[in-house]
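Hi again,

Forgot to attach this to my earlier email, sorry! This is the prediction with 4-nitrophenyl phosphate bound. I've pasted everything inline since the attachment limit keeps bouncing my files.
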Amino acid sequence: MRILMVCLGNICRSPMADGLLRKKVAEAGLEVFVDSAGTANYHIGSAPDERMIRTGRKLGAPIDNLRARQFSSSDFQDFDLIYCMDESNLENVLKLAKTDREKEKVKLLLNELYPNQNLEVPDPYYGSMKDFEDVFHLLDKATDAVMQKIK
Ligand code: 4NP
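Structure tokens for the complex follow:
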């Protein structure tokens, strides 16, 4: 099983989702490959946002070593599940899908936690440290739901 987390910049939401799920998968001893990517190209090669790094360290899922990359159409071959943080990411990823099989891999992450509600992980980029911590806790719950599904 291979799971990709996707947001816009790949420096706030998707690296934190990636770090949380990687940690849970490792602790559970599962053979699941986890990665993340952004739909935009602004931050390719960058470390996660300093505020997300600090939040991950403080709350127990360090993401210091992750580096941003852009989503690419080859990710449809390389991953089984592609979880998007918001509707805009979902739309941009779906635009690159060539087949129904590729489209079926693409989901809104929070639908694993709150089925059929199409809720979004809010972008904390222009927010406060509290917004980053709120995103962490939301992603912690959402990745617990993903773990229930893949166990
Ligand atoms: P992310 O947050 O999509 O959760 O990584 C953002 C990071 C950077 C920008 C927007 C959102 N930006 O406009 O540079």
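Residues 129-150 form the longest helix (22 residues). The chain has a mean pLDDT of 98.

That should be everything now.

G.
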